[in-house]
Amino acid sequence: MVSNPEDSEMIQALATVVASLEFEQLEAVAELHESAGTGEMGVTVTQEERKEELVEMMVGMAKGDLGEVYLKNVAPIENPSKAAQYLGIGMDDWQDELEKIAASVSKNLGETDQTDRELVAAYIDRHHGCKLATFEEEVIEWESGEALKLILARNMRATTQEIHTVADALAEGEEVSADA
Asked: Is 29:159 a contact under the CB 8 Å cutoff?
């Protein structure tokens, strides 16, 4: 029995296989772009980095920490450890928290004519580097199933989108040449 899930041969093997298959698809789509003359596909991580991300996701699932993995790797926010306290609390509970944050910010500012949402929007922007709406969508309304899909399917979705991009460009080119 492996005491550290990161060291599990099964997790390492699964992550290696998935990352390898993803990068085979990414390379094929890059060749498709080149052949079609539609630009190039931007890949932001290496195969090894993706493998490590997948290992982290699987370990997070095993440990019950998928939310932290999501905040660290997917959510477009700063200070994920501070945001974790609000992860998936839902809009009803968030309203209570929003009022508490607004009261605290208002107390520090003194008299202000800003609404609670305006005060909290500035607070979220300052502490998490994102808009309030983004914070609510990515953190407050977080659901593990959706997060898992985003983490696991990120490269697959990117590949699909790139195939559609090339197909659209080729279709437009065919329409243009047919009219010419």
From this structure: yes
Distance CA 65, CA 25 (A): 29
- pTM of the model as a whole: 0.71
The DSSP 8-state label assigned to residue 87 in this structure reads T
- Residue ranges of domains in the chain: 1-73+148-180, 76-141
- pLDDT tens for each residue of the chain, 180 residues long: 557 777 789 999 999 999 999 999 999 998 888 888 887 777 778 999 999 989 999 998 888 889 988 998 888 999 999 999 999 999 999 999 999 999 999 888 877 889 999 999 999 999 999 999 999 999 999 998 888 888 888 888 888 988 898 888 888 875 433 333
